[in-house]
Amino acid sequence: METTNFKIVSANSQIDWTGRKVTGAHNGTIGIKEGNFILNDGKINGGNIIINTSTIKILDVTDPATNAQFAGHLASDDFFSIEKFPTATLDILSVKEISNNTYHLEGNLTIKDITHLVGFDAKVENSRNEIKLSGKLIIDRTKYDIRFRSGNFFTDLGDTLIYNDFDLDFTITAEAAFSEQSKN
């Protein structure tokens, strides 16, 4: 069995986020600090992704002052508590092939030191020295103590309500770091 470690290339990887509220949505990007995927005989077997929460950007708010205020609010304890928790992590625990090049991944997602099991589908393009994963992860923010204007915790929010789920659309590129032969 050949085991290969693929290191995430942060500069060639992208995570787009979308958060929705009654009156519309906001979107932006967030960066990957580092991570890797383990492949056994060309198939993903595990991995780890570390997200740098301090890189969160808002793309749909073009006024600089409003954008800075919004970014400060996302960094605050109402949302991601970036000063206390500068990273979020996903540790991939299991991978099942659904069809050719499509996999269902499950793993522990940790945000603000709170961990929950998540699952999502990803398309994998695999060349000998590079893989690309793309897909969408939908997260219930209230499970991670992000309750600001959530209808689960506050009443009479009217059109200020923010929906609990937010989306992370990702395209991640990783390059082969090394290869080991094992006798299993």
TrEMBL record:
UniProt cross-references to SMART domains, sorted A to Z: YceI
Domain Lipid/polyisoprenoid-binding YceI-like per the UniProt entry, residue ranges: 5-175
Superkingdom field: Bacteria
A Pfam family this chain is assigned to: YceI
SUPFAM superfamilies named among the record's database cross-references: YceI-like
UniProt cross-references to PANTHER family, sorted A to Z: PROTEIN YCEI
Name the UniProt record assigns to this protein: Lipid-binding protein
